[in-house]
Write a structure and sequence with these properties.
The chain is α+β, with helices and mostly antiparallel strands and about 90 residues long. Helix content is about 15%, strand content about 30%. The strands form two sheets. The chain has a four-stranded antiparallel β-sheet, with no helix packed on it. The chain has a two-stranded antiparallel sheet with strand order 3-4.
Length: about 90
């Protein structure tokens, strides 16, 4: 099962399930238009509140703005023992 952000004015990735939960995420249009590196924060409130991050380079932002695809894995933040797949 994958989840996307319900309201995103830019590009919302598919976030894979890990430890029986997922996270909404979005790269806002302002970040896409800005072109600078951007770090998404993946927050969870319903399942043991915690966050992960997913860093995008300037080249990644250009790829996303052009409608391209990319994939990677979120960070282990705040002592988490799991990661999530992130796919645009």
């Amino acid at each position: 099962m994958l989840a996307t952000s319900p309201s995103c004015d830019g590009r919302a990735p598919m976030i894979g399930v890990a430890n029986a939960h997922t996270h909404p995420a979005c790269v806002p249009m302002a970040a896409l238009n800005g072109g600078a590196p951007y770090t998404m924060t993946l927050e969870a409130t319903a399942y043991a509140p915690h966050t992960h991050t997913f860093a995008l380079s300037s080249a990644d932002i250009s790829t996303l703005k052009a409608g391209g695809s990319l994939a990677g894995t979120s960070s282990f933040d705040a002592g988490n023992t799991h990661q999530h797949s992130v796919t645009f």
